[in-house]
Amino acid sequence: MKLLRLFALACIAIIALSFFTHSSSGEKIKELHFSKKERTQPAPENTTEKLFKKAAQAKNLTQQKGYNDNICFLIDMTLPSGQNRFFIYDLKKDTVQSAGLVAHGNCFQYWLEGRKYSNVVGSGCTSLGKYKIGHSYIGKWGYSYKLHGLDSTNNNAFERTVVLHGHSCVSDTEISDEICQSNGCPTVSPNFLLRLKTIINDSKKPVLLWIFE
């Protein structure tokens, strides 16, 4: 009887040791795999971090050039067109005041896959860079604002008639699909344009618009 008890205890000890060793080994492999993944795939910069960096640069520029240093408009072209990517940025509080959808240029293709940029007259593409928002006018697309390109990548904007305007094809809210495409103009929803209109028209200084990746 005593021998049977000792044998049973020995079996239990062997099973427990085997289970512990297996579990520890499994956890260790999982942990090493996770660490390796972290080292080889650093986390990408998120939209908020990018906006903070762009806003800091925009703040310096507005002060140097005598632009409105309270508010600027930032457009992040890396985001899908169905997501809010036109940001009304409060430079004093370092916060996003509001955001909306904005179309990008189709480069005169039926439908542009991905992104393509150009500063060439007649290209129909979006031009990256900083813009000074100019005078308003009533044109082909209704109430619009002239845009003056400030960089070598967009200095043909005025000649190309790249303007800020609204269009009913742009939704007021985010959607799961892509929205319509323009011929190079940053096109927003009519309601979002009304928000921008209040800011631009009430500003005693030019407002900065920056389209970036």
Describe the structure.
- The protein has a single domain, classed as L,D-transpeptidase catalytic domain-like (Beta Barrel), CATH 2.40.440.10.
- 35% of the residues lie in helices and 22% in strands.
- The chain is built from four helices and eight strands, in the order ααβββββαββαβ.
- The chain has an eight-stranded mixed beta sheet with strand order 3-2-1-8-4-5-6-7.
**Which outline best applies?**
globular
Q: What is the structural class?
A: alpha+beta
Tell me about the biggest sheet?
8 strands, mixed
Terminus-to-terminus distance: 79 Å
Per DSSP E runs of 2 or more residues, the count of β-strands stands at 8
Helix content: 25-40%
Query: Structurally, how many domains make up the residues?
Result: 1
Task: Give the rounded overall mean pLDDT.
Answer: 84
The ordered H/E elements are: HHEEEEEHEEHE
- CATH topology tier name: L,D-transpeptidase catalytic domain-like
CATH superfamily: L,D-transpeptidase catalytic domain-like
Uncertain runs: 1-44
- Strand content is 15-25%
Quick overview:
The protein has 213 residues and is of the alpha+beta class.
Itemize the secondary structure elements and their pairings.
Blueprint: H1 2-40, H2 47-65, E1 71-76, E2 86-90, E3 95-100, E4 129-139, E5 142-149, H3 157-160, E6 163-166, E7 187-188, H4 190-202, E8 208-212
